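1st attempt posting a full record on here, be nice pls
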Amino acid sequence: MNRIYLDHAATSPIHPEVVTTFSEALGTVYGNPSSIHGTGRAARKALDDARKLLAASIHADDNEIIFTSGGTEADNLAIFGTVSKKDNKHIITTETEHHAVLHACEKLEREGYDVTYLPVGENGRVRAEDVKNALRDDTILVSIMMGNNEVGTIQPIAEIGELLKGTDVTFHTDAVQAFGVLPIDVNLLNVDLLSVSAHKLNGPKGVGFLYQRKGTSLTPLLYGGEQERKRRAGTENVPAISAFAKAVEISLATMEEKTEAYEQYKTIFKAVLDKHSIDYKENGSHSMPHILNLSIPGIEIESFLVNLDLAGISASSGSACSAGSIDPSHVLVAMYGEQAAEIRNSIRFSFGLGLTPEDIEQAAEKTAQISQRLALK
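the predicted structure (as tokens):
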């Protein structure tokens, strides 16, 4: 069976050139970047070169990049590292954030912080006006993701950043899903902190970074050595970081053609469903090009995903799976309400490396066939 992978928003295959960079670095760049001898200096150069490329990818300075173990650590460092520096206790976020942000905020609530979870419309988008209205004298942090990992909605980050510019409020955005897909300039966005992970853009798992604007206060989460300018202790994973940089280099060079391809894939997919008279609705708006989230009336998501898997299609509900059952998507609940049918019949297809228009057409044909079959039951 020719398996078609349409779950790139969950994780992505490593690009062959990135595999080469990673494996070569594993064998040759084995020194500790903190060592002063030649072997250590070679590792330091590889680390510095990667940092320079990654900083340039978001129009930041080299010393504003903190390497982490991935997006979750970057989000946690941004949130806990910010609030521990100040006395204020109010945080603003949205109901549709990734759990790396939501669960961090829930922990802070248990410790006495007050968190405002802003609602979104049926398009999945928060309004900058709602952020403005939620601001208080004791607001310490605003954390709003750039692009939603389930429905793909792009949030008005630049508008919110302009609103917060010149205030004492720290502005963090989780850009894990958007980085490598959307062009990012931290100066145009006016963000103070920005989280990124390598495995969403054909890099290795277990590595990411947090951008920290100069002058933005941050308390470390980890204590030990003085790596990352004393902001994140632990010997840097130089091979993974070098591979991360290679993945970003490739991603930036191919961003336009990828965007064009992904928009074509969406068109093909929906055209096939239309050809078979499948009733569906696209969830979210202002969406990133690689995510297509569809509500298909008459289906139940668990059986639908099982049938797709048996047909060789790897897709996702976009929500958490635990012990064989799928929890309701908090994103769709926020968009439509707890009793909405979309919570039970929505599926996420996400595109990336290795796909062809023929793959998309074949996947859409199987999706249509399964939809028709399950709708008859």
